Fold these 2 entries.
Entry 1:
Amino acid sequence: MAGLVAGCIVFVLHLTLLQPLITQAEIFEKVSSSKSSENMVQDSSQNSSKPDTHHVHDGSEWSPHDGIERSFYTLIAHIITAIAYSLLLVAGFAIYGRDVSLLQGLLWGGAGFLSFSFLPGLGLPAELPGATRADLMDRQLWWLMTAFLSIVGFLLIAFGKANLLRFSGGIVLTLPHIFGAPVANSTMSGPSSPELAAKFVMLSLFVSVIMWIVISFMTAFFYMRPIGNNYFSRFLRR
Amino acid sequence: MNNFNNLVKDTNRGELVQRIVPALCGICLGFFLLLGVGFADAHLIHNAAHDARHAHSFPCH
């Protein structure tokens, strides 16, 4: 339920804030790739290779048509993502095993936002289509490793009994950033303007913040609901 | 008394299992969904979830 509502809210924010930027970036990307393919034809004797900074969809692959179909699949993807995060959050509450007040729920959600959106974004900020980047597998591994280590770090800081454990939680949090995110080999920049990319990063973080607030509020509320009659006062307590 | 202690221990263990097992199932399902939407390499899933992947800063392409 929390995932469904959060996914729908994220979808509305996505359509109004992010989709125009993605569409604009794709226009830049198409123009840039058509230019580079023209260059390839002209410079074929010089063995020029197409830059790996662009992804061009093969015409034979299925992809949703622009408009309602594309938006529909985006909505489904947002709902599934929000449900996935909600499940992880409720699982955390269940293992915690005690009452989760609104404030505690928001704290858990804040840790979720930092672990899944902000800290991976420090190394690998949200990208517009066509941006220059490193190998996909390296980036995916770094992203997952950062999310996992961030969760472990926050758990150690929040529930570590000894100071040493809390301190090691801080170390675990910073490890992936000391190790460093994979960087692109190419020194070229993507076809979109840096202004557009910067706006996209900020807006996607804003959308993530809203998603995590909705998810943490609703999951804490529904988690407390079956516990007793006075759940509302227990939910609102500090 | 010994029997009573064992009973308490069993009840606690039962409660713990009742709590932890669904939580672990939730974690597995949550990660399965997250990996599916954000990380699956299949072109079909990638193209369908493309815009959402960019929005959630999942590495894409």
Note: Chain A touches chain B through 50 residues (CB under 8 Å).
Entry 2:
Amino acid sequence: MKQTLFGYIFAFSKRQQIILVILTFAAFPFIYLQAELPKMIVNGAINGKPSNFPIEFNGFEFEHVEYLFTLCGLFLTLVFINGGMKYMLNVMKGRLGERMLRRLRYILYERILRFPLPHFRRVSQGEIIPMITQEVEPLGGFFGDSIATPLYQGGILITLLVFILMQDPLLGLAAVALFPLQGALIPGLQKKVNLLAKERVRNVRLMADHLGESIGGISEIHTNDGSQYQLSRFAGRLGIIYEIRYEIFRRKFFIKFFNNFLAQFTPFIFYSLGGYLAIKGDLSVGALIAVISAHKDMNAPWKELLAYYQQREDARIKYDTVIQQFDPPGMLDEAIQTGDGTPPTPFSPDSVISFRNTGLADDDGTVYLQSISASFAMSERVAFIGPSGGGKEEIAALLVRLAVPTSGRVHIGNDDVAQIPETRLGRRIGYVSAQPYLFANSLRENLLMALRYRPSADVDESRRAWILEAETAGNSVYDPTGNWIDYEAVGLEESEDALNARIRQVLQQAQLADDIYEFGLRGRINPDDQPELAKRLLSARTALREHIEATGETGLVEPFDPDHYNLNASVAENLLFGTPVGNTFDLEHLGEHPYVLETLDRVGLTDEFVQIGRQVAETMVELFADIDPGHELMEQFSFIAAEDLPEFQALLGRLDRGGPAGGTISAEDRGQLLSLPFRLIPARHRLGLIDDQLQLRMLEARRSFAEHLPEELKDAVAFFDADRYNAASSIQDNILFGKIAFGRSQSATQVRTLVGELINKLNLRDAVLDIGLQYQVGVAGGRLSAVQRQKAAFARALIKQPDLLVINQAFSVFDEASRTAVFDGVVNGATNMGIVAVLDHPEQASAMDRVFTVDNGRIEDESVGGAVAAEAAE
Amino acid sequence: MSLTEEVEVLRRLPLFHRIEPRRLKLLAFTSERTTFKPGDVVMQQGDPGDSAYIVLAGEADVYVSTPSGELKVATLGVNDIIGEIAILIDIPRTATVRAVGELTTLQISKDHFFRLMTEVPEMGIEVMKELARRLERTTADLREARAAAA
């Protein structure tokens, strides 16, 4: 990596910079001509004496008016040429800047991936992220201007200076007399600004760091009443940044002021000294005026140069302060990640894994492992046990090079682990740690990341230009949208089916299949994309219905029937008779939607709803009026939130005074009452408020709701249809197509079992699993439980069928039953790979061929077979 | 059968008959109507108990396991309460209960019952009085039995 900004600019854009300079200077004559032409037009053409015509111009003779239009035409042409050249230059500069910025960011990211791992304990995300995202951003605007601008402005300045000197050497010298002073003083002033700018960068990073920590440690802040201290610390940080920034712009403006003063001081000399000489007759007035106007012209490029200088200093500091952070000692060699393009040789099961006087210590002297020696065959199942912190964890880390020995070596076969490229280590060895990380993507993508090494060679033609551009900016030439799954490397034939079979196999081994199946049941599909599957799920719906009828279990599920009121569904669900899409018809707030109210009006149910609402309110007030507002019973059962109860009490009081008719109820009160009946589920609440008569009228409302639904609301609900797959409902709901009955003992469990049996019978389980794999795991896998994340990590390590599986305390998160199940699935199921497991529970070691006990950074004991477990059991 | 009728059933039970109707209404509202098919197990002897059941319709047989196998000891009908001890203390079920025909019950869960008692102390007091009356009866029975034996 280039240590200086200009080193970087020259290394990666020399040719483009030269072209820019040439083009800049090529524009000179045209600019000059365009500046000269107006004078010719005014003096020669407009004010020209008729006697001068016809006039000869460039070898042609012109009449007066002809001459004027010719010059004006020329002027217009020059305007186009100059504008066009400027446009072209700006585009070139912009493109150059963007490519250079892209390259810089890529280099920085690429270096992060090669940072020595202990370095990540010292740098925080909060500092690194803004460096790549924001801090380098302004450099993009500078790269294009870095060479051409100073040359261009400098050139103009020198030209003008020569012009003045030729007019009058003395005045010329006077005009530049203050330049050396400016040249000497301004960098000195700028230097202080630079130091402050560095300080500012450092403090902004600390602020970013503070922000990152606050988000990461938000629970600790809440549980320790830490908000005020954190706010105060943050304010302190902002205060420091404020002071630095204030100081910076104060100084920047001072430089500006100082420069302006000097720029105006020169004319003062011209007027006084030049004027004196003119009066004395030593200088012609015409020459003086020419010099003054030349100086005036000179001021513009001089200002530009100064601005450039400040921008350059700014860019230089940004570059320096960023680059320093990306050059820690001990970076991984690039070749270790790129490999040589050939598929890696698998590790032979006969190869011997050996630790040879391997020691591991921190830079601050903490010793994790003291010169250990051990060897075993890769085909053996090896366990490392011992107290936590005794050094066993580090042994696993050394095997996969997450730690590098500070003394001695680790060998697999004849290869030093430190030298094995990642192409081999990362593909042929699987590693599962106790804190697995999942990426914010679907579960399937998280598993497949273990199979994505390089894209296949055949590149999509439409992506060629895109890749070429990436190459121009020195970026990766691999197409991210290409086919990255390496079937061959993991022993699969190249087909989606084979891959899915492998995924299901490892899910089974990692005991994750049942969880994924549950996700699948709750998942959704788009029947337009998967018509075949939708059809099969519909047949499951029919099969379930037939099964229930055949076994006489009709009470278990109450199906959705357009001609029947569903007693196990709420009033809202009965009215909507579909699944809401988006929040428009949110079932919780259905009674507030204008169209719903309009529907009630249309079928004349509004008054009835108000009356039912009143009865619901009365019951709720009766039941909960003197129950403690925060009480669980209330939160769980009341239709009216605790804080709204007094309001309803008052409302009912008003109604009682106004008589039972309800005709006098205010619009607001009606609205309040109207919303209550929507949550009633007759089978559950047994309030006896929805009688047969009302049920019939609700069916009418249901029909009316669908019939009159305005066009713009059509997408907000997916109606139930016994013959169509409902894209808005989950797979399970699509199969059930009804509500599980309340008040049937064990109905939910029975239905689950029934659905499960049916899915197996119809061979739908694999399809449900595939849908479950689309489950989005959330940031860092946060939507999965810790146990599920750990299981997913096992599945991810197994999917590539490594030659060696290294397990680092990855069973600790499980309870005893699932620990045994996962251990059996993973360790006993993985017959074709070596296993090295760091275990917390010695009894698990009984299944292992060789067991090392590690403590105090030393191997304290080595035993063969289940001896250790037998001891533990005693 | 609606909530109001369930309240009537609850009121007829000795454990609840002195409790204000509106409290019973809350108890009924927070309880679930549960139906069992013929032969369904309502509770299994030895299992931890978490609910009591009040028979609203149908019949249930009560069995105790003895060394010589299961023994039917009683048949319960409408308005009988099954497993009431379970909503007062944590002890395993002392008998197995099975539905004879279609059985409809009101299932009172221990959690809800306890929450209700903490919220409505006078309800707790009424239950306590009823338990004391039972204890008094049992003690009297015991006295008589001892006297008879002596």
Note: The first strand of chain B starts at residue 32 and ends at 36.
